[in-house]
Amino acid sequence: MIVNMQAGATDEQIEHVIERVKECGYQAHVIRGAERTVIGCVGSGGRRTELEALVAAPGVEALVPISHPFKLVSRQLQPKPSEIVVRGVCIGGSRPVVIAGPCSVESREQILETARGVRAAGADMLRGGAYKPRTSPYDFQGLGEEALRLLVEAREETGLPIVTEVMSTEDVDAVSEAADILQVGARNMQNFPLLRRLARASRPILLKRGPSATVKEWLLAAEYLLDGGNPNVILCERGIKTFETELRNTFDIAAIALAKELTHLPVVADPSHGTGRRSLIPAMSRAALAAGADGLLIEVHPCPERALSDGPQSMDLAGFAQMMAQLRPASEAAAARV
Ligand code: PEP
Ligand code: MN
Fold first, then answer.
1. 49, 112, 116, 247 — which has fewest CB within 10 A?
2. What is the sign of the dihedral through the CA atoms of 233, 202, 153 and 87?
3. Nearest atom (ligand 1) to Cα of 208
């Protein structure tokens, strides 16, 4: 339920409503807009009839039920898009951001060369996996803590903020110390203990959509993070499993537009995992930006043929630089639309 306060509601009236919401057994999430305050009442086991009586409280304009199962992420509760600022880079603002880097951090030379190259091409952030969720236990599993140290070194040299995946609750502290944004991989989208732990983390979360998750399940996974206290969540569409076999995944561009319609959270697009094919990435990047994506996550490797993971979908530095130059009009058009 949303309590819409009147435009002229006083602080005292707002405080009173918050108190009553809590007394009725709900949590009160207060969103103070430029004109008016709204209070989201969420939680299970509250006394709804008592809550509904608040329509008679001073300063209250109306009570509106939230029609979706996800509440705190919904646009109904917060019509204004959320902006997340990380080391001066704004995600969800007027300009799309580009997060680029290798699938995995493989060596000092590899990550530093990539960081310099993607920065020169205009990327805003550096990605690189330290802990890798691999389908086979025999595949490269990531360099772990050493990779975190190398990412920090790359940030120190280039100034690019770092995005890297955290796979387990045990690693949250170490990864938070090094990284600026913590990625939840597609396979972990519904790892509820991890989501609950990350809700208490000090960093923004980039939440990938599960390979077989509906948009509703994806947004409910994000709801866990907000409900547990972390409002800084970025959604990432990375393709889903369908009957199509020519591509690694089916890149669901409609889900980008839908997520933007249903939520106030920023949405970025990952056409690298979304297609699995380097040649399709420029076209799918333009499509994602046209659909309203707030940014792109692109895999880039200085020598894709030697990559220890995801080589076929990784762009080389020259290809990435060329795409960035070609994307400029799409990016400017997206900025002008906002
Ligand atoms: C990745 O970003 O390299 C990755 C493993 O992504 P996903 O979880 O989307 O498969
Ligand atoms: Mn990858």
1. 49
2. positive
3. 9
- Pair 147, 130: CB distance under 8 Å: yes
**Contact between residue 40 and residue 102 where contact means Cβ atoms under 8 Å apart:** no
Distance 129 CA to ligand 2 centre (A): 8
pLDDT band at 338; cut points 50, 70, 90: low
Residues with CB under 6 A from ligand 1: 103, 129, 133, 185-187, 208, 238, 273
Cα radius of gyration (the chain): 21
pLDDT digits 0-9 by tens, 92-119:
999 999 999 999 999 999 999 999 999 9
The pLDDT of 209-223, averaged and rounded, is 98
The DSSP result for 216-260, as a single string, is HHHHHHHHHHHHTT---EEEEE--B--S--SSSSB--HHHHHHHH
Q: Using N-to-C axis directions, what is the helix angle for 215-227 and 253-262, rounded to 10°? A: 40
Which ligand minimizes its atom distance to the CA of 314?
2
Residue of 103, 125, 131, 190 best suited for mutating to test ligand 1, as the one with most atoms within 8 Å of CB? 103
Report field, pTM of the whole predicted structure over 0.90: yes
Q: Is 336 helix (H, G, I), strand (E, B) or coil?
A: helix
pLDDT at 35: 86
d(CA 327, CA 321): 10
Looking at all shown ligands, the one closest to residue 313's CA atom is 2
